Every structure is written in structure tokens, then in C-alpha cells.
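User: Can you help me understand a structure? I only have the sequence.
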Amino acid sequence: MNGTERRVSEQCFHDRQAAERADTFRAGAALRFDTDTYLDHETWVRPAFMALGELRGKCALDFGCGHGMAAVAMARAGATVSAFDLSPGYVSEARDRAIANGVHVECVTADGEELPFATATFDAVWGNAILHHLDLAKAGQELRRVLKPGGVAVFCEPWGGNPLLNFARTRLPYPGKDRTKDEQPLSRRDLRPLCAVFPSVEVRGFQLLGMVRRVWRNQRALNFLDTADARLLRAVPALGNWCRYVVVVLRAE
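Assistant: Let's start by predicting it. Here is the structure, written out as C-alpha cells:
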């Protein structure tokens, strides 16, 4: 599948997904949420959001915004926020969510490999589960172009370093398993184009033992495993390669 076909397939998939969600958002109350609930819905989200640094007075971009919760959270933190997605359906949801939560977010439909923003526009860029959909040789250049000198980009991504997890992703059923047929979790090899254009590329793993939450919901046990993960990954950072997700932090000169 070539790049154009892939983008059309991705757009159609996510438009269908957005349409399925739309009926649940007819009332504005369904679009409202509190920031802490969003930041704590996965173990990596709050640490990743903190890596953006102080947002008040900054220009921020929600890169592949999807439902737009991150855009709203950044606006609440005092940033001037733009958001884009390849899916017009998700752009519409993100726009409605910003309005329902009383913040302004400039929402546009765009391709992460051809951004419609001026050079050196943003101090901070956020993305969740988006890099692994893209040609990073193209997207990395565009991302570096729109970041201001000294800017930071933070991405939360599914990680492909664990062969057992990859087997489960491919072969086993579990709740929330919903993805396009072409997408693959991010790998070290995928990061090479980003390393070529960013002087600093940091990768931090999350959910080593805690990845069992995909099939097991005992919160007391999960809290114990999350604590164990924090200690293990601090002591042996290389174990991050076996984690379910990573946070990638890119810093521009």
C-alpha cells in the first residue's frame, strides 16, 4: 500500500470510529471532563504531559488530536492551542469538546506529513499514538520545522520491543483491541529519522509488569505492579524496551 492509499485508509477508519462515538456526544455534558481524570487514565499520560514544561503563555500543538482532550488540557494550562487530525470526524469532535469545556482551540484537518503551520510556530507539541501511523522521515522534518528553537515535542506511543506482547497484539483477543490493518507499534528503527533531525531524543518505557491491566482489572494488584515497574525501570532503564508503551521526548536546538 502506497502513502496515499495508506492515508485514505487511515482517514476512513478513524472517521468511522468518530462517527460511532458521535451519537454519545449529542449532549454537551458528555464532552466535558476534568483534567486529572484525563491525565491519570493511563500511567504514562501525566509524566508525559509534565515533560511539556510550563505551558502558560506558550503556543502548543495537539498533533493528531483525535478526541481533543489533550488540546483542552493544554488550553486549561494557559497555552494558545492548535489541533489537527487527518480525520474530519475527529476534528469535529475535538472542536465540540473545546467548546463544551469553555476553551478555545483552533482545530483543522491536516496530514502530519504535510503540516499547514508556519515555520517555528510552536513551543510545545503533544501527540498520543500518532507517530507509529506516519512516515517519520517526512513527519520528523515537518515537526522540526514547526517547532521553535528550544521547543519540545512529547509523544506517547505503543512500543514494539517485546516479542511476547507483539504476539498477543497480533493473535490474542482482548478489550479495546481496535486498530488499522497497517499500523505497527513503534520500534527503535522507526526512531532513526527523528534522531537525524533532533539533537535530543529521549525514550522512557511504561507498563512492564503493569501491562496486564489489558486483561486483568484488580486495581490493588495493578497499583502494586505499577510501583514495581517504577522501581525496576529506574534501576534498569533497558527494561523499557519490553514495555507496552513509551514516551518519546524530542527537543529542538
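Now, to help you interpret it: Strands lie at 59-63, 80-85, 105-109, 122-128, 147-158, 200-206, 245-251. Residues 154 and 249 are 5 Å apart (CA to CA). Let me know which part you'd like to focus on.
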